């Protein structure tokens, strides 16, 4: 990673927790679409002052909710055993991660990776506005929402991409599985979330150029993911990528008054 990729002042405490915090399981989704200029990815700038990653430009995502474990979710696509093998975890956790990926994507962007049947996906998610609000408020579980709406979770629309764990030096830690998904035809990603003050579609290379100019702040996993996505000219190419999913656990180092994250192979 570039030397300029440093963490904001105060992002990591001077005295790291001892013992380190236990990482919370989480899922994040890179929504991508094809354009005349190449692949674009959906990005959000998190509200400044949030407990984790405030002010950072990120992908939609969040922690696994206990109700994401519900085995009653109507499901189409690779089964939890397959996802567990890819992410190196138990099938029950793998199911919860996929459910969290679909739920968080819907909550934070309004994009719903589900359909009335195994071979279909909703063309317009706006009729489910009330359910989206209830999911955000934790008044409704994903399983109950899909059952009430007669929808099937489309696990086949997701691809496993990476697995990053927050460094042990940070007080809030996440074991985050990164997923890739193409924006379903007819659906629109929006900014109707209290967690972001700006959303936009952008080519990965342009997002990296914005970061280089100081126009946005990126965490190391986001920077690396954007760099990887920039290698693909089409959504189909990215979706077909054969990804290695080793757990990446960076380390925080202090260097001349700045704090940066170092990957294992860079130590």
UniProtKB/TrEMBL annotation:
Residues covered by the Nudix hydrolase domain: 22-224
SUPFAM superfamilies per UniProt: Nudix
Cofactor or coenzyme needed: Mn(2+); Mg(2+)
Listed GO MF terms: hydrolase activity
Entry keyword set: Hydrolase, Magnesium, Manganese, Metal-binding
Protein name, UniProt field: NUDIX hydrolase
């Amino acid at each position: 990673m570039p030397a300029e990729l440093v963490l904001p002042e105060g992002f990591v405490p001077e005295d790291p927790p001892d013992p380190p915090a236990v990482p919370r399981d989480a899922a994040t989704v890179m929504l991508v679409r094809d354009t005349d200029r190449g692949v674009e990815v959906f990005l959000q700038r998190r509200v400044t002052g949030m407990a984790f990653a405030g002010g950072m430009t990120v992908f939609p995502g969040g922690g696994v909710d206990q109700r994401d474990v519900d085995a009653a979710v109507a499901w189409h696509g690779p089964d939890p055993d397959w996802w567990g093998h890819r992410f190196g975890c138990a099938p029950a956790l793998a199911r919860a991660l996929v459910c969290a990926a679909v739920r968080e994507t819907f909550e934070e962007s309004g994009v719903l990776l589900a359909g009335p049947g195994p071979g279909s996906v909703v063309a317009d998610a706006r009729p489910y506005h009330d359910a989206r609000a209830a999911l955000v408020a934790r008044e409704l579980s994903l399983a109950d929402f899909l059952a009430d709406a007669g929808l099937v979770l489309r696990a086949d629309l997701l691809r496993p991409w990476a697995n990053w764990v927050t460094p042990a030096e940070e007080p809030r830690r996440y074991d985050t599985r990164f997923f890739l998904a193409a924006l379903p035809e007819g659906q629109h990603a929006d900014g109707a979330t209290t967690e972001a003050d700006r959303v936009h579609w952008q080519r990965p290379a342009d997002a990296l150029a914005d970061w280089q100019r100081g126009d946005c702040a990126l965490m190391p996993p986001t920077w690396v993911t954007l760099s990887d996505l920039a290698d693909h000219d089409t959504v189909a190419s990215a979706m077909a990528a054969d990804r290695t999913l080793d757990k990446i656990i960076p380390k925080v180092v202090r260097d001349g008054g700045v704090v940066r994250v170092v990957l294992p192979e860079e130590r």
